[in-house]
Design brief:
The protein has 285 residues and is of the alpha/beta class. Helix content is 23%, strand content 28%. The radius of gyration is 19 Å and the shape is globular. The chain starts with 8 loop residues before the first helix and ends in a 6-residue tail after the last strand.
């Protein structure tokens, strides 16, 4: 991060490759493998792309259609992990060895091209929530991606006095992407200058594992149900008058947490009808 300035058509065009091999292609600039199941990468940003932190786009690779023999894109929905002001785009992905897309995507290198459709959508945006005092980000696995964007979004700290991010994974190493990102906020000179010195003190990070031994074991839903999570965090149970929430995880997790939040009295919102919580239906870990 060197500048937190809006990406204009002029600046984007100046940094974009002169020629694309396929329509909607973007160039990979960085790849990092976190575990044998997880990796993240960055790529160039289309000059026309405007998005709200927390939204997702369709990305993928070209493949040959076995029937027609023609090249066509194989696309999947991916949350943008970088904030809306970033000059590049970041994504966080699982590796599925026999997956149609990720079996190939996991092998990309800087300089390679991916296909990116610059039409962002999604419900994990501030506009879909009513004003509140505390925001909860609930994630499992690579569901952390949209929150990686929102944790670096100035509006998050303008809108809320407290930001709680829970991240549940099977193994401890699967928490490293999120833990490193949050730790990096403390020394990020740009964000501390733009948002305010010590903005990161508003964050309460609550990582848990379900299989491998770690400082905190258990599913976040079980820890909330028992009251242990609230005691650990030093906060009151969720209250619809003050708390807002966003959910991004596997389908079973999403459904269970939706039911829990509604038991607390929260209502599900949308871009056209802001309420107390939202869930990303497009994500499947």
């Amino acid at each position: 991060m060197t500048e937190m300035t809006p990406v204009t058509d002029a600046t984007a065009a100046a940094t974009a490759p002169a020629k694309k091999a396929v329509p909607d292609a973007q160039t990979v600039t960085e790849v990092r493998h976190w575990t044998d199941r997880l990796f993240s990468f960055r790529c160039t940003r289309p000059a026309s792309l405007r998005f709200r932190s927390g939204e997702f786009v369709m990305i993928g690779l070209m493949q040959t259609d076995p029937k027609s023999g023609k090249e066509k894109p194989l696309l999947r929905a991916y949350s943008i992990a970088s904030p809306s002001w970033d000059e590049e785009l970041e994504f966080y992905s699982i590796k599925v060895q026999d997956g149609p897309l990720t079996s190939r995507l996991q092998h990309i290198q800087p300089g390679d091209e991916i296909v990116l459709r610059p039409k962002p959508v999604g419900t994990l945006v501030h506009d879909a929530l009513l004003p509140g005092k505390r925001i909860w980000f609930f994630a499992t696995g690579t569901g952390f991606a949209p929150f990686a964007s929102l944790l670096r979004e100035p509006q998050t700290y303008e809108d809320y006095d407290e930001v709680i991010i829970t991240h549940t994974c099977r193994e401890a190493a699967e928490l490293h992407y999120g833990a490193e990102l949050i730790e990096g906020l403390k020394t990020d000179e740009l964000l501390n200058e733009v948002i305010g010195e010590g903005f990161w003190k508003k964050i309460k990070y609550y990582p848990t594992t379900t299989r491998e031994e770690s400082p905190k074991m258990g599913r976040i839903t079980d820890l909330m149900r028992s009251g242990e999570a609230f005691r650990d965090l030093g906060v009151d149970p969720i209250n619809p008058d003050t708390d807002r929430a966003m959910i991004c995880g596997n389908l079973a997790f999403n459904l269970e947490l939706k039911a829990m939040l509604e038991e607390y009295g929260l209502e599900e919102g949308a871009n056209s009808d802001p309420k107390q919580y939202v869930v990303e239906k497009a994500f499947l870990d």
